[in-house]
Write a structure and sequence with these properties.
The protein has 24 helices and 23 strands. By secondary structure, it is of the alpha+beta class.
Length: 850
Amino acid sequence: MRVLIQDITYSFRQLRKTPGFTATVLLTLALGIGANSAIFTLVNAILLHNLPVTDPKTLIRIGDHDDCCVNGGWHDDGDYSLFATDTYYMFKKSLPEFEELAAMESGYAWRPITVRRAGPQTVAKSVMGTFVSGNYFRVFGLSPAVGRLLTDSDDQKGAPVTAVMSYEAWQQDYASDPGVVGSTFYINTKAATVIGVAPKGFYGDRIDTNPPKYYLPMNAMDPIIGAPYFNDPDSQWAYIIGRVKPGTSIPTLQAKASTLLKQLYAPLKTFTDQRAKKALPRTHVVLTPGGGGIQNMQDGYKDHLQLLQWIAALVLLVACANIANLLLVRGMSRRAELSIRSALGAQRSRIVRQLLTESVLLSGTGGLLGLAISYLGAHALLALAFPDQHNMPIDAAPSLLVIGFAFALSLVTGVLFGLAPALMAAHTQPAEALRSNARTTAHGASFLQRALVVLQAALSLVLLVAAGLFTQSLNKAENVDMKLDATNRYIAHINPQAAGYKNTEVEPLYQTIVDRFHAIPGVLKVGLSTYTPMEENNWGSGVKVQGEPDLNKGASWVKGTPEYFDSVGTHVVMGRVFKLQDTLNGPPVAVVNQEFVKQFFGKRNPIGHRFGFSGPAKTAQDGAHEIVGVVEDTTYTSVYWKDHAMYFLPLTQPSGVPNDPDNPIDKDQSFYAGAIVIQTNRPLPGFEKTVGDALATINPNLTVVKFQTFQQQIDDRFTEERLIARLTSLFGLLALLLAAIGLYGVTAYTVVRRTAEIGIRMALGAQRIRVIGMIMRGAMLQALIGLAIGVPVAIFCVRYVKSQLYEITSVNPTVMAGAIGVLVLAACIAGFIPARRAASINPVQALRIE
């Protein structure tokens, strides 16, 4: 310990003597470790984080897919992750290997609820709410912050409606008022009693950009939101998570659950179709760890976050190469000191330990600075990854795991990249080092130093190419002709069902909304629809053309009003769009897109043909809708979705065959509009308030769920791509800067080492331009070797990221040329500065050095 303290004290003195060297190393390390720690903070918070519940390791989810939100039909691969109510009760009864099983709503994000506290002058708010089984909180082992949590008695048919409020909603919306517990709230106009507040920090069963503010018993789902699928054994809507008993064999339990599911599905209406019967033997479930909850967001961000972690690691490698070069230079400058220590009897192991102590001290201090940078960087990353989201249950502050990661990274960096310089310096021969008066030309940088510069140049080129490719991909995706017009368009998301409207009452409501908004000065078009083009939503079904064989193909569908197509900028190419006469009592009609025509009709004219839904014989409705028009292929959901067949139905007409006993109109959820799209003749300041006030005059419970411009909605679909493009560019430029500093350092060191030689050359008549050329050749040679290595590596690495690029499968020559040009320019600047200094050497002064 005494020797260690001596080493540390001596290291501090040595580092104080060279403030420039110390500051450069610390800044380089802080940037490299900070970038990695910031990315790892996000990786830890999203990919590795467990739910804030009791003993998350014993939680098991039945299912392994990101399914959402209400599914019907069978899966060709037989793998199920979403389940019907009957399936949940069957698993709960027949799988005693679970201590308990809880069910939770899969698609609450698409069905916000309207909440108003009972009392005068209270305002209705549209918030997130989710329906869960009565044992939901018990399965997670949670205790209430105030009041009590849901129990099995709350989750019974006919039981009084109760709700649990989230801690954040209690704190933010009601200032932690304990009187909230026991109060009556109107949820979707239905009276409910808030019985308690969930524990602080609990955000539900999954990470989400907008976590639930209210938890309600699932048996209240149909009364509150009108969910006929809750009691339909063929409709899958719930995720299931449970806590397994100690000693349970997961493979055995998985096989048992799969067998039970197969037995339950066999008699269902879904599996009466011949193709479904063939898929039934493949029916199974996969049990997965449930400690992290439902992994929807994790699955969506996993590839991009892992890519960013690799890119940050490359930046750290460039930084470490730079530090190794600085340590080599410093070791060479201390050869005399180390030689004297060696001559006086110091063992080489003692010298190596002393130099390693300095390296570890540097890297540890750099790691602490890196943590500070990572804290700021993680906040910036969250703002980039989730813009306009203020309720994300992700903490940007470094956790113990992140701190441990940064500490380990610092330690490895210090040992790994301080070892080689320490060994080289320790092997200095005392006699050679002490011959300081031998008049000889000095060699330049060592082979290892030049190799490190080459490595930096190669890695920098790879990162610059990656930055160019992701920027090109983003630019290409954003500039796709989506057949949309976002100019002066606004989208107001609404929820008429939550405002208390039955689906048989919405037709006059929609006409009132259209009339009220047309009365606003500047409004040109008002369209209502179930969902809008570039939101993350999709409704789909199988399609069968009447009188023709079933092609086993499906299509997405949207319901809208007559002005909907004009409001989003979609043009008609054949026939007509909807008219005011296409109402509940009118003949069922449909408009299809060009891709629909291509897939189901080829080159034939589709106008006048009828189509419906493929499925079991009893429910096949192949003549439900007559095609009256064709519109262009507007992009819906994502530009990455190619060959997207779609059909459109009038908003107030049934989605199936009229008067179908299997699909009664009063249970048809597609009658409810999810959005109003408004086209204006100019930008209208304060239009959000205008829209909210207009809806409130129609019904105070008809609130705006979300308001945005159409352009904002489109931009939101490229948030991840924009994050990757910006960060790869930032990391690429950082690596380039570090590589340029490394090249400058080695070249400057070479100039210092060769000062006498350059003086002799100039004394013998060498021109300044030739001296500059000599130094520049050495610098550029290293950069060119780095390019020769980096180009094939970059081309090879594209295969690993092309799945994340939009219509890019190889390195674009323009991108490669740009990356090479930037690197060459940086190398020229880094080499020219010391070369110019070399050309300014006074021969007389240079010859006096020795």
